[in-house]
Amino acid sequence: MEQEGYIPPNGENVGNIGGKHMSSGSDNSPEHVIKRLLEIDRTIDSILNELTTSLEERAKGLFGSGGLCDSVELIPYPNRYFVAQEFNENKDDLRKSIDIALGKFGYSSIAANDFYLPEKLICKISALIQGTPFGVYQLSASQNRNVYLELGIALGLGKPFVLVKDKNANPTRIVRDIEHYPINSYLGLQYELGSLLEKHITSIGRLRPQKINTVKLDNNVVIYHGDVDDIDITVTLAKKIKSLGFTPVILGERREEIVRYLKSEAKIEPEFAGTRDQIVETIQKSRLGIFRIHKSASADNFVALGISIGFNKPFLPIKLSTDEPPSDLYHLSALSYAGFSNLEAQLQDWVESRMG
């Protein structure tokens, strides 16, 4: 949600960057406020050192030996920012305009399509997001699954981001609950981008996950529940997880129909994580996540998967055999199923091999 009174990390109260009121700090200029919110109000060397330390810590889990992304190099890009946008007729104009604006601060953009990334695409995209100090994400009316996945990674990493939202776009619930600081009027006035930005709402945001003791993880496996038609799949997953000695936690709103099925069919007292903060904390503390990766799965599902990747968590991707994943996940080896009985037959070996 766009809010006029976003409180930045240092506690200073700033208002609309178009000129209504600014912070009480020593530099009230819009440029300084943007740099502070994006955490680039320091030297490149300082940013490089922070990125390098962070990437060294990330060289485990998904990016460690035997992990999904173990062959992908983590490289710091201290003076670049990551761009995620839908491929449409306006993408070049929008990227150029943002480049003009952020180029003033000495930063240039970097995107997945700037490289030849034939395999492990999601790993290489994740590496780019990790290696840059912030990102720019365009939310379109189509709820592009690749963009939401990439934004989810940034959220899990706690990266600041510029959100360029099409005015007719309806953001997912997880993203909608994040406070955003509007910068439309600044970009329009400073760079005469009004004609382009009249179709967009541009803001700065960040999710700050709490630090937890990763040595003492909960015995949970998270499942992102899909639509009502997916109840059989969710119940099948929950039953198998429970049989392996773990606690299934459903990410998403509590639905009484799911509760009844879990109690009657799986003999499970269901646990749900419905709010943004609950979803983030539950993923962070979990052992494993199970996420649908077919295109017809909800955009919130892809945000949650991205958050899991941002937290460097192992995950099981599952997909309908009749549906395709978004391009970011094309080369990901997924457990493909035709129905709940078919899915149940395949689950145990996969989960035991990674959690036993």
What does this structure look like?
- The chain has helices at 30-37, 44-58, 91-103, 121-131, 145-157, 173-176, 184-191, 194-197, 231-243, 256-265, 276-285, 299-310, 340-355, and strands spanning 80-84, 108-110, 135-139, 161-166, 180-182, 200-205, 220-224, 247-251, 271-273, 288-292, 315-320, 335-337.
- The chain is of the alpha/beta class and 356 residues long.
- The protein has 2 domains: 30-205, 3-Layer(aba) Sandwich (Rossmann fold), CATH 3.40.50.10140; 220-355, 3-Layer(aba) Sandwich (Rossmann fold).
- The strands form 2 sheets. Strands 2-1-3-4-6-5 form a 6-stranded mixed beta sheet.
- Helix 3 (91-103) links the parallel strand 1 and strand 2 (108-110).
